[in-house]
Design goal:
single chain; Outer membrane efflux proteins (OEP); four-stranded antiparallel beta sheet; 6 strands; alpha+beta; two-stranded antiparallel ribbon
Amino acid sequence: MYKKLIIFFIIFQFSSLLADNNALFYVEYALKNNPKLNAERENLKAIKENENISISEFLPSLTISGSQTSTETSNIVDQSGSLSGNTKRNTETEKISVDQKIFQGFQGYNNLKKSRLEFEKAQNEYKIVEQDTIQNSISAYYDLIFKSKSKDFNLANVDLFERQVESDKSRLQKGEISLTDLAQSESSLAGAQANFIKADTEYTSAIAEFERINRIKAPKNINDNFEISFLMPQTLKSALELSSLNNPSLSIARINLAISEKELSVEKAKLSPSATLNYSKTENKDLSATVDEDEQETVKATVTWPIIQGGKNFSSIKKFKHKKEQNALLLVDKENEIKTQTSNSWSFYQSAESVLTSTEAQLKAAEIANEGITLEYDSGNTRTTLDVIQSRSLLLEARISNAEAKKDLIISKLRLLSQIGGLDLKALKTP
């Protein structure tokens, strides 16, 4: 018993550690529990059935019908005026009918193609929601890391200023600094405390947003490692080529045009002749006084050709021609839109990389400067209280800027991958 409890505890602790330190864990959880994504999955299954419905148009249909009639006749008077007795009669009819469509002017063929295109469209709609879910989940994860680090930086800054105020009070009593210097330290402490309160509020908001998106409680000890690897396009040209091939919104625009073409073909096919073949077998029992039972077999071929329908058919053709032209124009517009969005995402990605490099240099310089100025100030050298305050403010700003730049780089990668249609679990798991 105790052995099982120990094993369970170890597994639980390992699972908790994994959950607290793995962005992929939260992405998979969000993908499994996001109601909008689950709704798209059900929609995908429903639209898949349209293909089976279209295929059924090519297959024969079988109908079985039957009836039973009971007739009672009374007060029968013949031509001579004599009244005869009542009669009662029961009849049964059973019928089997098989219908097969021979030709429909390619309506069935085009409807089948249309249903397959609609399923492909639904797959791309699902992919859009999936990409949004992944992007939102990872963004919330790294925003939580950033807000946590910002809170920690500000808390450490408050601690430093509290110690400086205590130190300055002691130095003021010794006459090493003026009352103005102490006032500057106290003012900086108040400002640091205000910034910490703001950072703590933002961290609380980030927790709420994380839990809303991932639908799971935010971890207490989140991994502060910003590194996450993606296979990114190396040039803007390759990014544009990939987005042209794989962007789901662009694919939907192309599919809409193809669907409108099939719809137009279906409407044109309605003007063509159609042929059907019917076979039926009917069995009648007690059909009449002279015939007790009979069977009938019928084979019937029917050809129909609609000629005039009050202009309805021609108007429908014109309607779908306009719809096709509309989708063609929308496709051109979507191509331009995706090209612009991909270029912007690429620029944002390149800019984020440059900003991260700059903030790393800024942070390194700020750390060196703050360490030197603090040592000079503590040794009673020429450095003033204002110099220390400024160096610490610059160090805090550099730390926060560097953490934010790391987060922005991750988000820029997600944004670009989403544009080229490459944001999925496989991309996340690729080392």
